[in-house]
Amino acid sequence: MGLLPFPYRAARCVTMAGMTSLTDSFIEIAGAEGVLLNEPMSAHTTFRVGGPADWFIMPRSVGELRSVLELCDAEGVRPYVMGRGSNLLVADEGLRGAVVQIAQNMAGVEAFPDGTVKAQAGVSNAKVAAVAYRASLAGYEFAAGIPGTVGGAAIMNAGAYDGEFRDVAVEVTCLSPSYEVVKVPAEEADWSYRHSAMGDNGMIVLDATLKLHPGDPEEIQARMDDLAHRRSSKQPLDVPSAGSTFKRPPGHFAGKLIQDAGMQGHAVGGAMVSTKHAGFVVNANNATAADVLQVIRDVQAEVQSQFGVTLTPEVRMWGFDL
């Protein structure tokens, strides 16, 4: 899941010399392998679209993450903090600033005998579910097929098949906009449908403490297999997308509204509303980000016109003049 851009000071124009100097500084913090220049975001989003970011930085620790963000703040460079790009649409023109990815470099997870699971923000939900299964711990099966990271799941209260992140979360550790490490207990997280206090307050998730319960490994595996089959039979998992495109409007299902509006199969360029599940906009044939955005706008307009219901994208959009 893509995370919200971190709060930043007004950006200033960076000269070529300034970019070289900043690049050197980023490398001093995150290492040469952790800093990529003019990196195409199509390589880092599940939509497989998006132009280049000036810098693509992969910190290896909380300390490096803080240092990168502090440098961006001091130099007027806009930082965009992301996970594995599973809920993100980036403009074809790319991003002027530094994309900071919390993923494989900060992806530790450990299960304990008391049912506690400690997971860093960059670990995938699938890996957390796998580690829990090996420890005979149940409760995270619902998230095994949710693309993205624990950080994104915490920010968005990710959920599927009658399970939500808040059901298993005990505490979330975050980096505040003032670069302080803070603990947010579950009772203060204000989780609701695709919402959290952390997202509202511009925090970056660093790790989460979960509480699961003992379970039979065969039953846990059977549950995950059943959910995986249900997903593959109903969702267009064989083509690039960002998962469910729209939030569920109160009293309705987005996919049903889109289908009833006659928009299933609607296409612009290489992007289209999936014929398998109308709630998904997919990259069917070398789509551009502009194609995807236009399909989203067309769907919103038609559903609003026919049913008076506003569809709100669940997908984060970066680099667009919206």
List the helices and strands and how they pair.
Blueprint: H1 16-30, E1 35-40, E2 52-57, H2 62-75, E3 79-82, E4 88-90, E5 95-101, E6 109-111, E7 116-120, H3 125-134, E8 137-138, H4 150-156, E9 159-160, E10 163-164, E11 169-175, E12 181-185, H5 197-200, E13 204-211, E14 213-214, H6 217-234, H7 254-260, E15 267-268, E16 271-273, E17 281-283, H8 289-307, E18 316-318
Parallel strand pairs: 2-5, 3-5, 4-18
Antiparallel strand pairs: 1-2, 6-7, 7-13, 8-14, 9-10, 11-12, 11-13, 15-16, 16-17
Looking at this protein, list some descriptive labels.
322 residues; 23% strand; alpha+beta
Could you explain the architecture of this structure?
The chain is α+β, with helices and mostly antiparallel strands and 322 residues long. It contains 8 helices and 18 strands. It has helices spanning 16-30, 62-75, 125-134, 150-156, 197-200, 217-234, 254-260, 289-307; strands at residues 35-40, 52-57, 79-82, 88-90, 95-101, 109-111, 116-120, 137-138, 159-160, 163-164, 169-175, 181-185, 204-211, 213-214, 267-268, 271-273, 281-283, 316-318. A 5-stranded antiparallel beta sheet has the order 6-7-13-11-12, covered by helices on one side. A hairpin with a 5-residue loop joins strand 11 (169-175) and strand 12. Helix 1 (16-30) runs antiparallel to helix 2. The chain is globular, with a radius of gyration of 20 Å. The chain starts with 15 loop residues before the first helix and ends with a strand. Residues 1-13 have low confidence and may be disordered.
